[in-house]
Amino acid sequence: MIYTAFMSKSLDQTDCAIITILEQDGRASLAEIAKEVALTGPAVGERLRRMREIGQISGFSVRVDLRALGYTIQALVRIKPRSGQLQAVERMIADQPRFMSCDRVTGDDCYVARLALADVAELDDILLPFHDRAETHTAIVKSSIFEDRLPPLTPLA
Q1: Do 137 and 71 fall within a single domain?
Q2: Has residue 49 been placed in a domain?
Q3: Whole-angstrom Cα distance, residue 99 to residue 77?
Q4: For the chain, how long is the longest CA-to-CA vector?
Q5: Which of 6, 15, 109, 153 has its CA 20 to 30 Å from the CA of residue 120?
Q6: Which of 21, 44, 62 is the C-terminal boundary of a domain?
């Protein structure tokens, strides 16, 4: 039932435009968005409420400059738990606050996670506890071509 209700509330061109504006500037006011999409502020507010209600928008966030906070290095870590250690490793990942994100993946590894580091020497302190329970492979991020972004938004039929 939830799936049917979700699909019946498809995005139209205006919804796509509102999301695109917010993706570029999450602090845009309803009045600013309304001007861009030729609606009133209350109409934009109602559309945002509806999109949140049905799960098309799950929340709003802030982008932080990690370097300004002292995290000058990021690392991607592929993690392959040893036999019988899957749940324990998952808890370890969740409990380590330096992991900024973690995805369960297919293939040889079970997880791909992203770490924030002040310097490369911290890798040993963070990953050493995993070595009894998992195999890890680390790559240091040299630079990012782009940060998280939305795929192209098109109205759903």
Answers
A1: yes
A2: yes
A3: 9
A4: 59
A5: 109
A6: 62
